[in-house]
Fold these 2 entries.
Entry 1:
Amino acid sequence: MDNYAKLTLGRGLYHITNSLMSIMCVLMCITGCGKARSVTSTTEKIEWGYAAENGPDVWAQLSPEYFLCAEGKHQSPIDLVNPTPAELPPIPYDYRPTSMNIRNTGHTIEVACPEGSWIEVDGTRYQLLQFHFHAPSEHTVVGKPFEMEAHFVHKSEDGTLAVVGLLIESGRHNFAFDPIWSHLPAVPGETQRIENVTEDGSLIVDPRFMCSPNDQITDESPSRFSDYYCYDGSLTTPPCSESVKWIVLTTPIEMSEAQIAAFKAIIHDNNRPVQPLNGRKLLVNVGANE
Ligand SMILES: [Zn+2]
C-alpha cells in the first residue's frame, strides 16, 4: 500500500466514522425531542400583540427582525399636529367594487382585495392589497384619538408601500360598511367571503363609498383624494418596516355607535401609540378643511 492508498483509506475511515456519528446524533435528537420540546417551550417565539407581555413596548424584544420597532427613526403612527401647508396634488384613485375575503387575523379584521384597485402617487401606481381597521385610531390629531381608523394598504411594482388612513368618528350609520359588518369574522383565523353581487344584481362592496366622507361619489373616474396629510413612515405593526408613504385624509368618515361597538366587540385596543416625528416633514394640502 503506497502512501496515497493509505491516505485514501484513512479518509474513507474518517468519513465512515463521521457518518456514524452524524446518524447517532440524529437518533439522539429524535429520541430526545419530546424532552427538548418541553424544555424549550418556555423560550418559544412569542406572537406579537397588544397586551403588556407582547405589546408595542416590547415588540423589538420578541424577534431580531422587529428591531426597527425600537430603533427606527421614521415610525408610524404619529400625532398629526403643526403640519406644514403645501400645494399637494390630488391623488387619483380607482377602487373597484368586487368580491372580497374578510379575515380575522387575531390583530385586526382584514379585507383582502383582488387586483384592479389602485392609487397614483407622484406618477407611480400602487395596487390596493387589503384594508383593515384599528380601534381606537392609531394617528391622532393634535393629541386627539378617533374611535377607529381604517388603513388601505397599497404596493407599487417596486415593492414600495403607500397607506391611505381614514379616521373614523362616531356619527351616522355608514351604509358603505354594511356588507363587511354583516360578515365580521368573530374568531381569530376565521375568514368570511363577500360576493360582489346580490340576488338583484346590485354591487354590494364598493370601497369608493367607504373612503368618501359625505358619500360624495361622482361618476368621474378616477376619483381623487384632495385633502390629506402626508409623511414618510412605517408599518404600525411588526416588523415596523420603514419607507411607507402615509396619506391620512383630513376629513374623518362616520360610523354609528352600534357599528363601532360591533367591531370593538371582536377587536379592540389594537393601536400602536404615536411615535416621535424625529425631524420628518408632515405636510397638509393648503386649504384642507381641518
Ligand atoms: Zn393598520
Entry 2:
Amino acid sequence: MSGSASGTRSIPTLIDREHRSAIRTRLSDRLRVLLGSPKHSCFAFILSGTHKLGLWLGIFTNDGDSDTRIASGRHPANGSVPEELATPPLAWYCSADMILDLNQLDPKAIYALMIQSIVPRPIAWVLSDNGDHSYNLAPFSYFNGVSSKPPILSLSIGKKRDGSKKDTWVNIEKRKHFVVHIAQCQQAQSVSASAASLPFGSSEITANELETAGVTGWNLPRLAEAKIAMWCQLHQIVEVGDTPQALVLGRIEQLYLNDDFAQDGLGPIPKIDLDRLDPLARLGGDDYSALGDSFTVSRPA
Ligand SMILES: Cc1cc2nc3c(=O)[nH]c(=O)nc-3n(C[C@H](O)[C@H](O)[C@H](O)COP(=O)(O)O)c2cc1C
C-alpha cells in the first residue's frame, strides 16, 4: 500500500484472490502484534463489487458476554482507506470471503456476478422466423428445461442497447414458433458470431454461411449441422423486471436427434452419446467450457 497526498492510503481497487490473501496475511500479522490479545476481534467485509470496493471496518473488544465496538468506518468506495483507519494503533482484518449485497449493485455488476456464478450454462442456439422466408439465429444461455408434462423449456431474452426488443423476442412473439439447437464445442465460433447485432430481418444464418435443412412435418427448418434440435411452439411470455426481460416458455413439440449420436438406451428412448455430442457451455464473459469428465452417483432409495 502506498500513501497519498490526500491523507488516504491506496488499496488495490481490484481485489483479486492474490491481493485479498496478501492483505489478509499482512493485516492479521499486524493485528496480532497490535492487539495481541484474544480480548479483541476485528472484522471487515466487502460491500460492493471488485471495481468499487466498499469496506466496513470494525474492532471489537470482547468483555464477558458483550462486544463493544471501539472503531468502525465505511471507506468511500473509491479504492482508498482513510489514513486513521489504515495506520496503528488501529488495525484491521480483511476477510477472504465476500458477501455481496445485490441490492447495492448496479445491473451490469449483478449480471457479471450471475453469469459467473450460475455455471456452466447450456446454450440454446435459437432459430426464429423473420416472416419473409428468412430466419434469425442467436444464442441464449439463460436457458433451461422447465417441465416434462407438458415439455416446456425457458429462454430469457433481454433488450437491445437502444431499448427495443431483441429480434428473437419479436419473432417468437409474432410467429409463435422457433427451433432450439444444442450447440457443440466445435461450433463455438459460429455461436459467438451469431450473437452479432444485425439489422432486423438480416439473417445470421446467411451472414455466417450456415446451412439449414428441412424436417418432415416442421414449418421451420433446423440448422443442418445441428445434432439436436427442438421444434417449439410459444407457450407463454412472462415479462420480468424493470427492463423488462422476456421469460419465453416454449413447448417442445418434436425433438430431432442425429442418428450417429443415439445409442441403445432404455426401451425406445435412446441414450444420447454426450461424449460425441460435446455440448458447449457458457461461463462468464466470453468464456466457454466443455463437459469434462462425467461420473455417476446413485441416489438413496
Ligand atoms: C453464448 C451467448 C449467450 C447469450 N445468452 C443470452 C441470453 O441468455 N439472453 C440474452 O438476452 N442475450 C444473450 N446473449 C446475447 C444475444 O445472443 C445477442 O444479444 C443477440 O444479438 C440477440 O440476437 P437477436 O436480436 O437476433 O435476437 C448471448 C450471447 C452469447 C454469445
